[in-house]
Design a protein that fits this description.
By secondary structure, the chain is mainly beta. The chain contains two helices and eleven strands; from the N terminus they run ββββββαβββββα. The chain has one domain: BH3618-like, CATH 2.30.290.10. The chain is globular, with a radius of gyration of 15 Å. It starts with a strand and ends with a helix.
Length: about 150
């Protein structure tokens, strides 16, 4: 499927890569179909991907693997919230967190309170609000800088 995106221009997204969010995502319940896309030219451990809407090409949320910035991230998610995703296990679950990239890059943060959870086998996803005491704005600039220095990037 060809999608004209704001960030990547016109891209062809394989139908097998489209994830359905039955209830949409927080703030955008009408958007149900997404694909995780990234800039292949940008390598490195601190890669930010995008949760690209299929219905609305101009809408893409920056996301990343929370383990890149919070190695002990292990939120408790109520089983009821995960039921629509089907059978989840360590092999087919993908957890992402949204990234807020303000004009002042030193204020970059991730939302650890509302992760995006995807069953990669069944191509079903949900954004859930967890009860744990994780912050909505977890500042990551210094962590990314340290990771970059460790990786020699």
């Amino acid at each position: 499927m060809v999608v004209n995106t704001k960030i990547f221009g016109e891209i062809d997204i394989d139908d097998n890569k489209i994830v359905t969010f039955e209830n949409g995502i927080i703030g955008f319940p009408e958007l149900k179909h997404f694909a995780v896309v990234y800039d292949e030219e940008k390598k490195g451990a601190n890669r930010i991907s995008y949760l690209q809407s299929i219905e609305e090409g101009q809408f893409a949320l920056p996301v990343m693997n929370p383990m890149m910035v919070k190695e002990d991230y292990n939120p408790f998610v109520d089983d009821e919230l995960l039921k629509p995703l089907g059978n989840l296990n360590g092999e087919n679950i993908c957890v992402l967190v949204t990234v807020k990239v303000p004009n002042d890059i030193e204020q970059i943060s991730v939302n650890l309170k509302a992760p995006v959870i995807i069953n990669v086998d069944e191509k079903k996803g949900a954004q859930v609000i967890i009860e744990d005491d994780y912050p909505v704005r977890f500042m990551i600039y210094d962590i990314l800088k340290q990771n970059k220095e460790k990786g020699g990037e």
